Amino acid sequence: MRVLSGIQPTGRFHWGNYFGAIKQYIDLQDNEQAFYFIADLHALTTIRDAERLRQNTQEAAIDLLALGLDPKQATLFRQSDVPEVTSLTWILMTITQMSLLEKCHAYKDKKTKGIAADAGLFTYPVLMAADILLYDSDLVPVGQDQIQHVEVTRDLAQRFNTLFGETLTLPESRVLDTSAKVPGIDGEKMSKSYKNVIEIFETPKKQRKKVMSIKTDSATLEDPKDPENCAVFALYKLFADETQQAELAQRYRAGGMGYGDAKQAVHEAALEYFGEARERREQLADDTDTLNDILAEGARQAREKGKEVLDRVQKACGLGSNH
Ligand code: ATP
Ligand code: MG
User: Where along this sequence does the record place binding of L-tryptophan (predicted)?
Assistant: First the structure.
């Protein structure tokens, strides 16, 4: 079984990325054939600064390793190191209906928020389909926002197979119920592009400030509070065990506890949770040679598989000179 997922180097990773996606990457790396990539081609739709993109990509790789991704178990690579993916994107584009892309949330949401939409953003789900299909992926661990894009991928694979014969593998998404949509400091989905994130490796001081700014309702100190309708409690749940959750829930309902106390609990729980990863990150940050070796070896492995699938696709639709 092939597991595959990608993550954009559009900024430093946040709690939503970790609990929605990265934690699943690590859980699945031991017993599945895992391919994980840093989606720099996707990031190019938002970052137009070579140095920044390069830097972000490197930081992303270091972060993933620090968080527990093991390059001996999983293949870690840069999306742009496998140019076959853009060939497959074009081929898929020729069988993609505009109406299918017009329905996609990520595009619709960004457009509503007034972020100018170019063809790259509009066709992003086709590149994502190519990312998945190029490696015969079976399972795609993602957060809730990406389910629709995996559905698009299945549609395109099915359409290709109908037109040209059984060629592509249909993938399934894997979403964790408990962390499908982690809220940001404004209560909306935590997202790098919405500037509402709490970054995993932010300095403790900055992180505390962000946690303290999480939006809550106007209940006073004495008021009983509803833990199930509170972004602070939703975040606490990610870090705490069931007993700790029940204790804090009880303090919410009893009244007499301010949101400040709950926020402090979130801050402390997060520091504890990512403590080891922080230490590992410091060691990894100085060793760029090892990092480059890991990414080069990852690209080699991914490309080997990618070439095989692209070859099959080209043969099925009459492209290329090798057939
Ligand atoms: P951008 O705003 O640039 O799209 P992002 O913060 O949404 O960035 P992505 O790189 O698009 O991050 O997503 C990487 C992975 O993290 C995806 O699988 C996505 O579903 C997951 N993810 C992102 N935000 C959240 C969230 N708030 N809760 C759960 N999963 C999330
Ligand atoms: Mg996103």
Answer: 131
